Amino acid sequence: MSRATRTSGRPRRRATFLALALCLAIAALGVPAGASAESILYMKGGDVWLSSPDGANQFQVTSGGGYNYASQSESGAVIVASRERHLFVLDRGGAVVRELPTVIGSSSWWGPYEPQVSPDGTHVAYQYYYTGGGETRTGVAYANTDGSNGGYDLHTGWAYPAWYDDSLLMHSDPPNGLSQDVILRPFGSLNNTGEQWFSHDEMPLLHDGDIRANAMAFVSGQNDERLPVYRYDGAPGSAQIEICYAYKGPNGKFESPSFSPDRSRLAWNEDDGIHVSPSGIDSGCHPEQVAEALTIPGGRYPDWGAADVPGPRSPGGGGNPNGGGTPPGGGPTGGGTKPGDKTGGKTSGGKSSDAGAVRLRVASKPKLGPTLKRGLTVTVDGASGTVALTATVPAGVARRTGLGKGTTKVASGTAQAKGGSASVRLRFTAKAARKLARLGSVRLRIAGPGAATTVTLGRRLVDSTGSGREAGTRGRM
């Protein structure tokens, strides 16, 4: 791979008295020199929050819980958040502006997940899943944020939409082992369009990525245990890729990398919250120049934008002291985690999803052999009626073991909910148990009505978060 370098700078021609005047003006405003109007949108406790990049100034956008994901436009004027099977446009104060039409229809459709607002705020891309013929398929759909019907084609086969600009998106998480991990697709194009870009053998299963200018970051690995950062020189899609570095040894697993507007910094979340680090993209990609820190404890799914954090709410202003954000009629509750996601539908695999949602829990630390023989017990909280769960393996595992060509169902089970909870035992098919027993570990995607999670079965003890890593310290590749 070619190494690209980038330098930037501009001459300083300000007179001393002008510089002094500027410093005095900044001091009078109480704004630190070098400060910029930026914010990180994130989820915490089922609500949407905003924070300054240093974590010092935090603002709760919604209250009441039940939200699962959110994204903001570059200006911050448009926020789109998902709540179970619905998408809502919110203003920066948390008020619901409108509900958006989606492709999520019958119970065979799951979503919307990963809503990503275009930089100009006019469109949102989101992920969906569809179950049919014993397979779970995924793709990306689109909506206009003004509520009008765009009639856009679905983009199938890859997921995790990330806007490069207002007309081009990057998708990742390939449908099979013959495809590249990363693909580019023009907004509004037909389903059969797209340019496969690259995979990286040393960083398998690239997914959940972000792209800014000549920088990219992804989650990688069977257990989401790596976070590689790349740069490229040239047009996206045709440029050669250079890996700068990769984080490893997360607290749980890596999720949702997001670059700052100038891509000089990178945010992501682990199980303990959101971490922020210099990206090193413009400084030679030297690992020693990149340090990271826990900045927003308890936060998840950061989305970095160029707008500032709103000021404090006025006492008694509005009917909701925490910013409204409750969908009309109270809105739907629960759900919002995805069945086919390597990150467990943005739940910490095996842990419960955000507050107010249907939750899947795996209480034990499952080993591969005994689980394949006896089944896997999953507790479903917030459920009612008959609860049906399925467990699938990704296309690569299915193909490698001879179970199928795509994402394949390997276990299922049902139970009747009592008192809002159900205990479902997933039993494996004889063929799946026989084929999967040959592997060292297996990551399952468990999905049911309105919720999903992941769990890793290993020959050694693997915790129910699915991290599946040996004891060790944080480090770099």
Describe the structure.
With 477 residues, this protein is mainly beta. The chain folds into two domains: 269 residues, TolB, C-terminal domain (Neuraminidase, 6 Propeller), CATH 2.120.10.30; 141 residues, Immunoglobulin-like. The chain is 7% helix and 40% strand. It has four helices and 32 strands. Strands 25-26-29-28-27-30-31 form a seven-stranded antiparallel sheet. A five-stranded antiparallel sheet has the order 16-17-18-19-32, with no helix packed on it. The protein has a four-stranded antiparallel sheet with strand order 3-2-1-24, with no helix packed on it. A hairpin with a 2-residue loop joins strand 5 and strand 6. The N terminus and C terminus are likely disordered.
The tally of structural domains comes to 2
Report the mean per-residue pLDDT as an integer. Answer: 80
What fraction, in percent, of the residue positions are helical? under 10%
- Residue ranges: pLDDT <50 for 5 or more in a row? 1-35, 317-325, 329-336, 340-356, 460-476
With strands numbered from the N-terminus, the spatial order across the biggest sheet is 25-26-29-28-27-30-31
Main CATH class of the largest domain: Mainly Beta
Tell me the Rg in angstroms: 22 Å
Instruction: Let me know the number of strands.
Output: 32
Question: CATH homologous superfamily of the largest domain?
Answer: TolB, C-terminal domain
Number of helices: 4
Overall spatial form: globular
Which structural class do you get from the secondary structure elements?
Answer: mainly beta
Tell me which CATH architecture of the largest domain applies here: 6 Propeller
Distance between the termini: 17 Å
The fold-level CATH name of the largest domain is Neuraminidase
Task: Determine the strand fraction and express it as a percent band.
Answer: 35-45%
